[in-house]
Write a structure and sequence with these properties.
363 residues; 40% helix
Length: 363
């Protein structure tokens, strides 16, 4: 039996399904342990394995040091569940879960776990955090990375990591047949974002750039501290900006993309965000939507030469004009060819991911 250990709600831990879809296909038994920080009611899980939930609430946006006791509570839950279930192997998602279980992973479960590294979290904030993560990676059977940018950031060139590194893209192992209509004529371009709404100052600046331009409609789907953003847009009279709040990815994604012309994947290039490949990249690929990304990000580098991706900066002169001109000139035939080429690149990586996961699970 394999234990899959998440550190958040299932609806914001979509990467788990990349693993469960493979395990379910081969009838490999597993259970998922997760933390319902918002105390949400159980939902249709979308996978075969049993889910074990820790339900003590946590305010995600409180100061980091105030979260420590809650995280230790979750650690106790995990240790007790792992002991009770007697898992043969573990798959541990995110650095937070790896850190709170580091002693167990580097000891009893050494060589019997996969570490899935999703995001840069406290590597720049807590002394010794990055060093401990490297220790966990060295003890793993394999470390899966959601972006090659993380591999570069961690400089994994040492012998202890040789043969232990694999890409686990934020895609779901299969492309959809969902068909979107072509460009709408005479209507505003719908520039939509979905995900955790953060980097509030950056989003305010983004709204200031596009908020008074009637050629664009902006919608932000997702939870976060959006009150300041709503007030900001209301004070400035931006009638073309909307904050839609929480969504369920598996249930709502097709509705969101059906009302999207361009995927908004613009972020401030801070040290934690710059190396990532956002989930929205794979949504753009899946539904064949053009995407805006930030200049000098790893995502811009990854999409270089692809017609469906356009790298911009909020500092660019006449940015709305540039985006409007780029979108208006897009050729669907050229885009389709680039989508297919890029998909093949992801599929090749996914084949290696599946082989590595199955080798681990059956070995």
């Amino acid at each position: 039996m394999i234990g899959l250990i998440a550190f958040n709600e299932l609806h914001v831990s979509q990467y788990i399904y990349k693993y469960t879809s493979v395990l379910d296909s081969y009838d490999i038994p597993y259970k998922v342990l997760y933390w319902s920080r918002a105390g949400l009611k159980p939902v249709d899980r979308g996978f075969k394995g049993e889910a074990l939930c820790y339900g003590k609430p946590l305010d995600t946006y409180k100061a980091h040091f105030l979260k420590a006791s809650a995280m230790m509570g979750y650690r106790r839950f995990l240790i007790e569940a792992i002991r009770a279930q007697k898992f043969d192997k573990l798959i541990v998602f995110t650095s937070q879960a790896a850190i709170v279980l580091a002693d167990l992973l580097c000891g009893e479960y050494r060589g019997r776990f996969i570490f899935d590294y999703r995001d840069i979290t406290y590597e720049f904030k807590l002394p010794g955090y990055k060093r401990k993560l490297l220790e966990v990676m060295g003890a793993s059977s394999c470390t899966m990375f959601a972006s090659p940018g993380f591999i570069e950031f961690l400089a994994l060139g040492e012998d202890r990591f040789k043969g232990k590194v694999c890409l686990a893209h934020n895609s779901q192992n299969a492309w959809t047949s969902f068909a979107l209509p072509g460009k709408r004529k005479g209507a505003p371009i719908r520039l939509n974002y979905w995900g955790i709404v953060r980097q509030v100052s950056f989003i305010k600046s983004l709204c200031d750039v596009f908020g008074s331009d009637e050629r664009f409609d902006l919608t932000f789907y997702g939870e976060g501290r959006i009150e300041d953003l709503v007030a900001h847009c209301r004070e400035r009279g931006y009638s073309n900006v909307r904050f839609a709040g929480r969504y369920n990815y598996r249930e709502d994604i097709e509705g969101m993309v059906a009302t999207t012309d361009i995927v908004n994947c613009l972020y401030e290039n801070d040290r934690a965000t710059c190396p990532t490949l956002a989930v929205k990249l794979y949504d753009a690929l899946n539904y064949k939507l053009p995407i805006l990304v930030s200049k000098e990000s790893y995502l811009a580098k990854y999409l270089h030469g692809m017609t469906f991706g356009h790298a911009v900066s909020l500092a660019d002169a006449n940015l709305p004009d540039c985006v409007y001109s780029w979108y208006s000139s897009l050729d669907e035939l050229s885009m389709s060819s680039d989508f297919d080429e890029f998909r093949r690149r992801i599929e090749s990586d996914d084949e290696r991911f599946c082989a590595r996961l199955l080798d681990f699970s059956k070995g």
